[in-house]
Amino acid sequence: MLIRGSFDPSGSPVIPIEIAGPTGGRCYEATIDTGFTGFVVVNIGEMIHLGLKTGGAAEVTLGDGRTVPDLMAEASVAVGAVTKAGTILLSETSNEVLIGLDFLRTFRLALILTATAVILYDEAETLAAVFRALLSTPLGTPNTAPSATSGEV
Amino acid sequence: MTDTNSGAPRADPRDIAVKGSHIYQNRYRSDFERRYLGQFAAINIETEDAYVADAPEDALKKARAASPAGIFFLVRVGSRGAFKVSRMSYAHPRII
Q1: How far apart are CA A20 and CA A1, in angstroms?
Q2: Which residue numbers in chain A have pLDDT < 50?
Q3: What is the 8-class DSSP label of residue B26?
Q4: DSSP E strand stretches across chain A
Q5: N or C: which end of chain B has fewer CB within 10 A?
Q6: What is the ipTM of this complex?
């Protein structure tokens, strides 16, 4: 699996993912946050669309040092052709969809992030293919085009 | 507010955190910090049982196997929070 991400208008690296619960799924542009140690964070309002059932809570330490409790729910998360079940956090304070280090570990993905390229790949991918993907990324400013046109899943 | 698929009242994360932290501090913290530093513990806030594993999903899997309908508080042994996040912003989610 090799996924080309993109940069959102703020310059953050993003990839398309799908999150599914008991009553349906939804596609999101998820921000790759290597400062986040968990799996996935979505806003708590999304549990309505996805039909998620909460099974507990965990405390999350924010960047400013505050600690906030978030509900947790089981959900299926798909990236590319691979789907994994995991525990996602339902945040009352963040409206972004974030994926963190547990996401990379769960999907066994490595991340290459340069000034112009966002590439995720797993161990089945050859280094030659990864190198070709890097070479095919346009040079210059970060690609902030919508992921629907620049993402490759 | 209710769970959409059950109609039951949705748990308040602050209540779960308060109960779970209380159980952890009083029953497990001193022992776990000697034996399981850096691992994850899922604490059933009703039975007060705790399930420890290296990864958060494994701790929760053990906990749910023992009590499928349980409400759990997840802690990382030796840390303030179970997870860290470097930022929180207030942009709207981008749905494709």
Answers
A1: 20
A2: 148-153
A3: I
A4: 2-4, 6-7, 13-21, 24-32, 40-43, 54-61, 67-79, 82-91, 98-99, 109-113, 118-122
A5: N
A6: 0.82
Tell me, what amino acid is at A1? M
Band of residue B91 on the pLDDT scale cut at 50, 70, 90: very low
Q: State whether residue A95 sits within 8 Å of chain B by CB.
A: yes
CB A28 within 8 A of CB A10: no
Q: Any residues with CB less than 8 A from the CB of A148 and at least 6 apart, and which?
A: A16, B96
Q: Which of A8, A29, A102 sits opposite B56 (nearest CB)?
A: A102
pTM for the model stands at: 0.83
Q: What is the pLDDT of residue A133?
A: 81
d(CA B85, CA A91) in angstroms, rounded, equals 11
What is the token pair recorded at A122? 């797993």
Length of chain B: 96
Count of A-B CB contacts under 8 Å:
160
Which residue in A29, A67, A70 is closest to B80 by CB distance? A67
Amino acid residing at A34: T
Rounded to a whole number of angstroms, the CA Rg of chain B reads 15
Residue A12, judged by CB atoms within 10 A of its CB (0-12, 13-18, 19+), counts as buried
Contacts of B9 (CB under 8 A, 6+ apart): B1, B2, B3
Which tens digit of pLDDT belongs to each residue from A87-102? 999 998 788 899 999 9
